[in-house]
Write a structure and sequence with these properties.
The protein is α/β, with parallel strands linked by helices. The chain has 12 helices and 10 strands.
Length: 307
């Protein structure tokens, strides 16, 4: 799953053919159009399963509130769907506070701005004109350090801090860039005093890293916080007590012209219901059980009293 910006001009042009009127250049350059039929909400998503599932939750919650919804899922990368928001091709989509802030600010998120509330506050001065954030969810899809339950029990691990006295005995797997990233080995040493005995450069939260953890090749792995493996394999995510990793709280971003009180209330109900744990559980139904995102969204919204 990737939330990185897509810089290819060819890819931008291809996506613009799918979204009529979607700008292919600077996503912040276009002026937002005037309001249209307020009873119709066009919802977009990025091109990965979690984003589509969240967008479907938003869609069904709004339909339940009496709105007509136009689904335009799987648009592509962030620059494409921000352009679509700006030109009015879509009105709403799920985002991640840290990744969005990093994308909107040249040079990424400011140093020291990593916690959920700090990131959300910084976003308020950064959003493109005419686009607003609604209240963020507790749920996050962010970098984590995870271990098996067996390893957690053996070394009494619940937080990253707990690794400090034993890390020299352990191996960790992550993407190759982790060797030089502050939000990797550098920050772990400087902020937590954690220095691993061995670093295995594999893939960033991908199947090689997960397999290395499950097979015992490594004892610690950098995986994303809603990875289905956490639920299916009973992994233990170590608490990042010092906010080394940039927060990635899920939140709706919406064209201000469409953010009526009724729309906000419907979307807030979804955000209030979401947690990292329940999103991980329901995302596994899509990724592991291969259920349709619409079916899983209905089950979630029903369980939490939104439908």
């Amino acid at each position: 799953m990737s939330k990185k910006l897509l810089s290819s001009v060819a890819a931008i042009g291809a996506a613009a053919m799918v979204l009529t009127g979607c700008a292919g250049g600077d996503p912040l350059a276009a002026e937002p159009p005037g309001d249209s039929d307020s009873s119709v909400i066009s919802i977009g998503s990025a091109n990965f399963p979690e984003s589509e599932l969240l967008a479907e939750m938003y869609a069904q919650a709004l339909e339940n509130a009496g709105y007509e919804v136009n689904r335009q899922f799987n648009i592509g990368a962030r620059d494409l769907y921000l352009a679509a928001l700006q030109d009015g091709s879509i009105d709403l989509l799920p985002e991640y506070n840290g990744a969005l802030l990093s994308a909107l600010l040249k040079g990424g998120a400011p140093e020291g701005v990593t916690g959920s509330e700090d990131v959300y506050e910084a976003l308020q001065d950064t959003m493109p004109e005419g686009i607003i954030t609604l209240p963020q969810s507790e749920a996050q899809d962010k970098d984590t350090l995870a271990v098996t339950q067996e390893t957690a029990d053996k070394y009494s691990l619940t937080t990253i801090e707990d690794l400090a006295p034993v890390a020299g005995e352990l191996s960790v797997a992550a993407g190759p860039e982790w060797a030089e990233r502050y939000q990797g080995l550098v920050g772990l040493t400087e902020l937590y005093g954690v220095t691993f005995g061995e670093f295995k450069p594999l893939d960033a939260g991908g199947p090689l890293t997960v397999d290395a953890l499950l097979s015992g090749q490594v004892q610690v792995a950098n995986i994303f916080s809603t990875d289905s493996t956490i639920s299916t394999e009973g992994l233990v995510v170590l608490e990042d007590t010092k906010d080394l990793y940039l927060s990635e709280n899920i939140l709706p971003i919406i064209r201000e012209a469409k953010a009526t009180d009724e729309v906000i209330a419907a979307l807030n109900a979804v955000s209030e219901a979401l947690t990292t744990d329940n999103l991980t559980e329901y995302l596994a139904m899509v990724q592991v059980d291969k259920q349709a995102s619409s079916t899983v969204a209905t089950a979630f919204l029903t369980e939490y009293g939104i439908l």
